[in-house]
Every structure is written in structure tokens, then in C-alpha cells.
Specification:
Layout lengths: L1 H35 L5 E8 L4 E5 L5 E2 L4 H14 L8 E5 L10 H5 L3 E5 H10 L3 H11 L2 H10 L5 E2 L4 H6 L8 E2 L1 H13 L7 H12 L17 E8 L12 E8 L5 E9 L5 H20 L4
Length: 303
């Protein structure tokens, strides 16, 4: 009888604990719903916190165009080939002047207008930290095609992702960006898988280099990082489509990443904004507001 009482009590405490955790997370959900409620945009959110115990999503299983967020996945695919011994970080790649397409964002091209010789390490840094489109497409060619990147990510267990076009092809036609998609939940799960690295998806050297490079990202300072304390470490990747001149609609304003908290813990966050009639500043602020609400939840709210 005593044993039955103990088991019943334990079950009660477990259920109560789960309800309390869910109740706390509901506070954050309501705050996020409030942030997006009056915005003329479709917003997808996925958050994983509290050592993976908290999960929260809004439109988390909907498909959103990635734009440059897919450079996060491209870097992972290249590092996978490096870990197999097929490539190396110090391998030299020649980029000729005629490969430097002038139609899109490329700090590499601006700094090297006549082309040059670059290590794969440097190309990954340009691709991830500076969202360089030239370096991005060169890396894709090194390992195969955009589909090669998709297959690599799916091999890790992530199914909700599709990559059909490189940057040049994606920028050629507005509709093409929607063929490179993922879901907020799949994005956060990808971050979690490769950060925890429990299945040794990356070697230690590739892991250290990859996450260091994400922490050095210089783009989208007004999004996840926008309202966080300046000293906050964030490993992240952004993506942007610009505004369709005919419709006035923004197709993609995205930011995914890991935010490291003062107590040594972290939370994973993926925010995708699409079909937006808001201006660029307002789109960035949607992401910044959600990131700040999440940061406050995990640093101010009682745990």
C-alpha cells in the first residue's frame, strides 16, 4: 500500500511539474502572439530552451523561403565532405573575374574585383559570417549541386527542407526563392542537432570552426541581436529577399540562431517572416521583439 502511495505521489508531482512548465511557456507564447498580431505578415517561430525541455512554435510546421539562411546548411554540407577527407579547409580554390557576378551581394567580389585564390576556410567564412553570394555558389559547385546540400541535411534526420537553386538561380526569378524552403521547427531542430553534435555529425575541428564562424556573423544586426545586451553571444544566420517592386511584398526576412545567456545556458530560435507588407525596419523589429521576449523569459522569469 505504501509503495502504491509513493508511486501515485510521484506521478502527481510529475504531472504537476509538466503543467507548470507548460504554463510558463504559455506566457512566452502569448507575448509572441501579441507581437505578431497586428503585423501585416506571415510569421513562423520555433524556440527550444531550458536544455531542450521547452519547445514553442507558431506556424512551426509551415514552409518558409530560406533565402540566405540556406548558407548555414551549405557550410554544414561542405564540412561534411571535409570530415570525409574529400576536401580540406586549407584547399585553394581559384575564382576568376568572370565568376564575380555583379547582380548580387558579395563582399568577396568587392574586395577582390579581379578574382583570386581563396582557401575553403575563407570561402566558408565569407559565406556564413558575411552572407557572400559568390562564395556560396562556389562552395555548392565544389560539392555538387543544391540538391547535394539538401541530401546532406536530410541524412542527419531533418526531412522538412528543400534546396533546388543556388544564389544566382534563386535571385534570377522572384518565384524561385520559394523552392528553397524549410520550416521553423526543422530549422531549430537542425541547430539543435549540429550544436549538441551527439551523433558526431561534425568532427571536433569542424564543429569548433563552424560555430565560431556563426558567432562572427556580421549581417542582420537589427534582428535576433537587435535588442539584446551588447555583450550577448549569438551564433546565427540571416536571410533576406528584398521587396517585390510590383507588389510591394517582402518574400523573406529571416534569422535563425543560438542565443547564449549570462548563466551559461542558451536557447535556440528560428524566426521567418514572409508575405509581408511591412517595411524593412518593421520586419527586422518583429524578429528583434521575439528574440528579446525570449531572452527576458529565460533571464527574468522564475525557472
Amino acid at each position: 500500500m505504501n509503495r502504491l502511495f509513493q508511486l501515485t505521489t510521484l506521478l502527481f508531482l510529475l504531472i504537476t511539474s509538466c503543467k507548470t512548465a507548460n504554463s510558463k511557456t504559455d506566457l512566452l507564447r502569448k507575448k509572441i502572439e501579441q507581437i505578431v498580431s497586428e503585423k501585416n505578415a506571415v510569421v513562423g517561430v520555433s524556440i527550444i530552451g531550458n536544455n531542450g525541455k521547452d519547445t514553442l512554435s507558431l506556424n512551426g510546421d509551415e514552409r518558409f523561403p530560406m533565402q540566405s539562411v540556406f548558407k548555414f546548411h551549405i557550410a554544414l554540407a561542405v564540412l561534411s565532405e571535409i570530415d570525409k577527407g574529400k576536401l580540406s579547409l586549407d584547399q585553394i580554390v581559384e575564382i576568376h573575374k568572370e565568376e564575380l557576378w555583379k547582380g548580387f551581394w558579395s563582399p568577396l567580389r568587392d574586395e577582390n574585383p579581379n578574382g583570386g585564390s581563396f582557401t575553403i576556410e575563407k570561402l566558408i567564412q565569407y559565406t556564413v559570417s558575411h552572407s557572400d553570394n559568390t562564395a556560396c555558389d562556389v562552395l555548392i559547385r565544389l560539392i555538387g549541386t543544391p540538391k547535394t546540400v539538401e541530401k546532406c541535411i536530410k541524412k542527419s534526420g531533418i526531412e522538412e527542407i528543400q534546396i533546388r537553386f543556388n544564389e544566382e538561380e534563386m535571385q534570377a526569378k522572384w518565384e524561385n526563392m520559394f523552392q528553397n524552403w524549410t520550416t521553423p521547427n526543422a530549422s531549430s531542430e537542425t541547430l539543435k542537432l549540429f550544436f549538441e553534435n551527439k551523433n558526431n555529425l561534425l568532427s571536433k575541428s569542424s564543429y569548433d570552426f563552424f560555430w565560431k564562424t556563426n558567432k562572427e556573423t556580421t549581417t542582420a544586426k537589427g534582428r535576433i541581436r537587435g535588442q539584446l545586451p551588447e555583450e550577448t553571444i549569438v551564433a546565427h544566420k540571416s536571410g533576406s529577399s528584398g521587396i517585390n517592386k510590383e507588389t510591394g511584398i517582402t518574400g523573406a526576412v529571416n534569422n535563425i540562431g543560438i542565443v547564449f545567456l549570462p548563466d551559461g545556458t542558451y536557447f535556440i530560435i528560428s524566426v521567418f517572416v514572409t508575405d509581408s507588407k511591412e517595411n524593412s525596419k518593421a520586419n527586422d523589429k518583429i524578429i528583434a521583439d521575439i528574440a528579446k521576449a525570449t531572452y527576458d523569459f529565460y533571464t527574468i522569469q522564475p525557472k
